[in-house]
Design brief:
This is (S)-2-haloacid dehalogenase. The protein folds into two domains: 3-14 and 68-195, HAD superfamily/HAD-like (Rossmann fold), CATH 3.40.50; 16-64. The protein is built from nine helices and six strands; from the N terminus they run βααααβαβααβαββα. The protein has helices at residues 19-34, 41-51, 57-64, 73-82, 95-104, 117-120, 127-137, 151-159, 187-195, and strands at 3-6, 86-91, 113-116, 144-148, 163-167, 182-184. Strand 4 (144-148), helix 8 and strand 5 (163-167) form a beta-alpha-beta unit. Helix 1 (19-34) packs across helix 2 (41-51), helix 2 packs across helix 3 and helix 4 packs parallel to helix 9 (187-195). The chain is globular.
C-alpha cells in the first residue's frame, strides 16, 4: 500500500446535526446515479432540507461547507504520513468545495490530492470516482486504501479494486460488504492499523 484516500463528509469532517439531511442527500444522489443523472451535492442537500421542511436552508447549506474536522482527523492523517504513505481525499462534493472544506477545517495542508465526484461525473459508490482518484495518485487501485465511515463507500471502493478501511463509530458493516483490510472505532484506530502494515 502506498496511499490512503479518505472520504470527506462524515469521515474526516463531522456533519453534526446535518447528518440526517446529508444522508438523505446521498440517497437522492445514489438514486439519480442509477438513472444516469448527476447533480452536485449541494443541490441534493437543498432538496433534502426542503423535503424535511427545514428552516434556514441557506444557512444549513453554508454550514455544510464549513463542517469541523473530527477531533482525531489531523493526527490520523499525520500518523499515515509519518508511515510514508501519501494521503488524499475522495469526496462526493465537488473537488473545489472539498478543498475549501478541508482548508476551513484546518486540514488542507496535510492532504495532497483532492478528487471530487464532479470530475468523474458520478457519485460514489459508482466506480468512476475511485478510478479517477487512483489515477490522480499515479498508482494502481491495489496500492490505494480508501478509509470511510459509510458502508456503501467501503463497498464501492472494494468493487473498484481498492483496499479499504472502516471507521465504525459504533456501527456494524452489513454482511454483504467485503471485509475491510483495516477497521477501528475512530480514525485514530484505522490509521494505527494501516500504519502498522
Amino acid at each position: 500500500m502506498r496511499a490512503v484516500l479518505f472520504d470527506l463528509n462524515g469521515t474526516l469532517l463531522d456533519p453534526g446535526d446535518l447528518a440526517p439531511a446529508l444522508a438523505d442527500a446521498l440517497h437522492l444522489a445514489h438514486a439519480d446515479g442509477l438513472t444516469g443523472t448527476y447533480r452536485r451535492l449541494p443541490e441534493y442537500l437543498r432538496a433534502a432540507l426542503e423535503a424535511r421542511d427545514a428552516e434556514g436552508i441557506d444557512a444549513a447549506v453554508e454550514r455544510a461547507a464549513r463542517m469541523p474536522a473530527f477531533g482525531d482527523a489531523e493526527a490520523a492523517v499525520r500518523t499515515l504520513l509519518d508511515a510514508g504513505l501519501r494521503c488524499g481525499v475522495l469526496t462526493n462534493s465537488a473537488a473545489a468545495a472539498g478543498r475549501a472544506a478541508l482548508d476551513a477545517a484546518g486540514l488542507g495542508d496535510v492532504l495532497d490530492v483532492v478528487a471530487g465526484s464532479d470530475e468523474a461525473g458520478a457519485h460514489k459508490p459508482d466506480p468512476r470516482p475511485y478510478r479517477l482518484a487512483v489515477e490522480r495518485l499515479g498508482l494502481h487501485a491495489d496500492e490505494v486504501c480508501l478509509v470511510a465511515a459509510h458502508w456503501w463507500d467501503v463497498l464501492g471502493a472494494a468493487r473498484a479494486g481498492l483496499r479499504t478501511g472502516w471507521v465504525a463509530r459504533g456501527r456494524r458493516l452489513p454482511s454483504t460488504v467485503p471485509e475491510p483490510g483495516a477497521r477501528g472505532e475512530d480514525l485514530a484506530g484505522v490509521a494505527a492499523a494501516l500504519a502498522g502494515r
